[in-house]
Amino acid sequence: MPDISIIVPIYNAEKYLNCCIDSLINQTKKELEFILVNDGSTDNSENIIKKYKDKRIKYFKNENQGIGKTRNFGIQKSTGKYLMFIDSDDYIEPTMYENMLSVMVQNKVYMVYCNFCFEYEDGRIEQMYPNTANVYVRTSQDVQRDIIFERVSSSACTKLFDKIFFDSYRFPVGMFFEDHATIYRWISICDKIVWIDAAYYHYIQRG
């Protein structure tokens, strides 16, 4: 069984999809499972996905249902003990999953989060955090407070979750910013959460 299942909802992302998938299969952590869910794309996304022969990729194609329902579908199909999410127009650093799982196991927590950076189509990268690479153990109350004041991202994509979270809560369907509506609940059932002060996630800014 894979240690981590990574769920990727895909909708008309042909321009960015190669970069996203390449960043997954080139992770230093190898015991992974990639759940690629085509949410009714009308572009060339499917042909791009099918050219990859990595046996860790599990590909599904559905009618367009929106990101919340697509993520929930991916959760149902996952077999890993831990879950992560990535949007199909973003990409990640090669050591992201190895480092995040390592600190999760060492600190015996149910959630780890890292930083992100904004990356623009002209090549500019905007760093939002100090990125010292230090590791901090935090209380759930402190993390919730920082999310409210936008000092911590409420995106699901910068976090590693124990799959136990999803026994009780799933993503809401038909809602924009669906992860913002659920992250508070997941945080509230944690005694402590670990933060890695490193920008592993590249959040692509586009129109």
Task: Determine the strand fraction and express it as a percent band.
Answer: 25-35%
The largest β sheet comes out as:
10 strands, mixed
Average predicted local confidence, pLDDT: 94
- Overall geometry comes to globular
Tell me the number of strands.
10
The SSE order reads EHEHEHEEHEEEHEHE
Structure description:
Strand 1 (4-10), helix 1 and strand 2 form a beta-alpha-beta unit. Strands 1, 2, 3, 4, 5, 6, 7, 8, 9 and 10 form a ten-stranded mixed beta sheet that branches. The protein is globular and about 45 Å long. The chain has helices spanning 17-25, 45-50, 67-77, 96-107, 140-148, 183-188, and strands spanning 4-10, 32-39, 57-62, 82-85, 91-92, 111-120, 125-127, 135-139, 159-162, 192-205. The model has no long low-confidence stretch (mean pLDDT 94). The chain has 207 residues and is α/β, with parallel strands linked by helices.
